[in-house]
């Protein structure tokens, strides 16, 4: 699992990095580096490199090893097929199609990361008694607990999962009482802690915990969290 403190802050500009100036490279390395760079956040499979460059297996392997040792490229995990080795320039981060998105680390669902984020969301809702999605999102951004710039949609996914797990309830503000700071009619969240007795814990609520085929499940397998309707519903992605 990833070290939370080591997560790199993502740029909110949406701009792609500029290609660095590299020293003169041997012909095969330059050909391969230019190709890998052109694939940006999707990267490229070694078999496709051979097809597009016309280089032999040995030439590609040797050039990749050299480029990686020089710090120009990196290999990344493809959650759909771990045996399919993907390379990209070090300036890029893998696209969601390759990495699985924020919730995955090294090809596996990062439960530790999700747990910490859920706890921070819950604490803020309890602090305000009632909070909007935007309240929680801004709190997470300002707290500096994470070195990653979450989107509003990502926080929505987490909050939706917490509603399904009965940690939070989603309701409409009345504009009075605990809702005084939220305009009447707006959707907001309130903690269910202590309201309806003890709640099911996070890890026991994950559908994977009670799945009889969990040992057969993997990101690139026939049974996979990528295709599991129960897991998608739990994470709040079924909309």
TrEMBL record:
SUPFAM superfamilies the record matches: Winged helix' DNA-binding domain (SSF46785)
What the entry lists under InterPro entries is as follows: RNA_pol_Rpc34 (IPR007832), RNA_pol_Rpc34-like (IPR016049), WH-like_DNA-bd_sf (IPR036388), WH_DNA-bd_sf (IPR036390)
Query: In terms of one coarse class, where is the protein primarily found?
Result: nucleus
What subcellular compartments does it reside in? Answer: Nucleus
Keywords recorded for this protein, A-Z: DNA-directed RNA polymerase, Nucleus, Transcription
In terms of superkingdom, the source organism counts as Eukaryota
- Check the record and name the Gene3D superfamilies matching this protein: Winged helix-like DNA-binding domain superfamily/Winged helix DNA-binding domain
One example of a Gene Ontology biological process annotation: transcription by RNA polymerase III
Q: Name one Pfam family in it.
A: RNA_pol_Rpc34
- Record's protein name: DNA-directed RNA polymerase III subunit RPC6
What organism is recorded for this protein?
Dendrobium nobile
Organism lineage string: Eukaryota, Viridiplantae, Streptophyta, Embryophyta, Tracheophyta
């Amino acid at each position: 699992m990833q070290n939370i403190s080591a997560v790199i802050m993502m740029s909110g500009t949406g701009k792609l990095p500029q290609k660095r100036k590299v020293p003169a490279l041997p012909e095969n390395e330059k050909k391969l580096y230019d190709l890998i760079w052109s694939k940006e956040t999707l990267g490229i499979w070694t078999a496709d490199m051979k097809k597009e460059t016309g280089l032999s297996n040995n030439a590609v392997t040797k050039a990749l090893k050299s480029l990686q040792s020089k710090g120009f490229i990196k290999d990344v995990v493809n959650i759909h097929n771990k045996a399919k080795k993907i390379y990209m320039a070090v300036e890029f981060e893998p696209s969601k199609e390759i990495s699985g998105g924020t919730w995955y680390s090294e090809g596996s669902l990062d439960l530790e990361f999700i747990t910490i984020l859920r706890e921070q969301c819950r604490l803020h809702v309890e602090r305000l008694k009632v909070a909007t999605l935007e309240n929680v999102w801004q709190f997470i951004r300002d707290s500096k607990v994470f070195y990653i710039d979450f989107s509003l949609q990502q926080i929505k996914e987490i909050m939706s999962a917490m509603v399904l797990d009965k940690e939070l309830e989603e309701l409409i503000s009345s504009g009075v009482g605990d809702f005084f700071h939220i305009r009447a009619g707006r959707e907001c969240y309130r903690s269910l802690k202590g309201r309806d007795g003890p709640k099911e814990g996070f890890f026991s609520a994950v559908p994977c915990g009670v799945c009889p085929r969990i040992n057969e499940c993997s990101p690139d397998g026939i049974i996979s969290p990528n295709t599991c309707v129960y897991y998608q519903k739990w994470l709040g992605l079924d909309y």
